[in-house]
Amino acid sequence: MFTLPIMIEQAVNGLVLGSMYALVATGLTLIWGTMKMLNFAHGEFYMLGGFGTYFGLMILGLPPWLVVPLAVFLIFIIAFIMEKSIISPLMGKPGWDISTVVATLGAGIFLQNFAFKFWGGDFLNVPYMFDGVLRIWGMAFAWHRLYILVLSLVVIITFWQVVKRTRFGLALRATAQDNEAAILMGIPFRRIYTVTFGLSASLAALAGSALAPIFSVNPWMGMVPLIKALIVVILGGLGSFTGAILGGFILGLCESYSVLFLSSGWKDLISFSLLIIILVIKPSGLFGAKEW
């Protein structure tokens, strides 16, 4: 029997999962809205975030408050170098929209095999950042899951404020809306591209770091989040920041309740069914127009 406490617990679990989908999807949306390309190595940044957290906590013995920002910063540097060396030389050249897809696919395969070669294919367990359970009104909530939800909300709100209220955000929105006009106004669009790519990877790495204690760490852990993030991006609408956030929470709640009412085996089917329904009813997504 599904009581109200169980329903609320499952809703919280869905919001936690959805917040991570929203973070990963926001990174994809950021790149699409600014650079007009899809990054198929995005899941590998999620994976590197998980490995960075594992080695920081388990090998180096660093405290969680230092490990998470350090791992995210290192992934930002890796993405920065990747954009400068692989993506930037292709941008604006004939067929760049296809060549960037091939380049990011290749980069993703390289990062997967790099992780497998140096760290092996075993599933590595990462301890919770916060142990224990919060019990209230007959319900139980793991502190680590609450940490994930609060962290994601803080990051999303902060990022929204940066985009809307800072000079960098203004330059980012100008580049996304009209690249040529932004160039005429003196905006260094190449620098905007590089920083945008790094920020996108950082969001994926943060999600990987937060979910590593729940799903464990392995070289192939980025594939599922990438697929789910693509579903969220299509669900919310390509280029829509608001759509990526709401789409992530919608997908997370749908998957959470599908596990409750059906079984865990139905979770992925529900995700793809939701995608098909949106494509049939509203192919442009919930927020079809680009929002910056």
Describe this structure in words.
There is one protein chain. With 292 residues, the protein is an all-alpha fold. It has one domain: ABC transporter involved in vitamin B12 uptake, BtuC (Orthogonal Bundle). It is built from eleven helices and two strands, in the order H-H-H-H-E-E-H-H-H-H-H-H-H. It has helices at residues 4-35, 42-59, 64-87, 96-119, 143-165, 167-177, 179-184, 189-215, 223-236, 241-261, 267-281; strands at 133-136, 139-142. The chain has a two-stranded antiparallel ribbon. Strand 1 and strand 2 (139-142) form a beta hairpin. Helix 1 (4-35) packs antiparallel against helix 10 and helix 5 (143-165) packs across helix 6 (167-177). The longest helix is centred in the N-terminal third of the chain and has 32 residues, at 4-35. The protein is globular and about 60 Å long. The N and C termini lie far apart (44 Å).
Describe the structure concisely.
It contains eleven helices and two strands, in the order H-H-H-H-E-E-H-H-H-H-H-H-H.
Question: How much helicity do the residues have?
Answer: over 70%
* Helix and strand sequence: HHHHEEHHHHHHH
Count of distinct strands: 2
Strand order of the largest sheet: 1-2
Q: For the CA atoms, what is the radius of gyration?
A: 19 Å
Structural category is mainly alpha
Assign the CATH topology.
ABC transporter involved in vitamin B12 uptake, BtuC
CATH classification class: Mainly Alpha
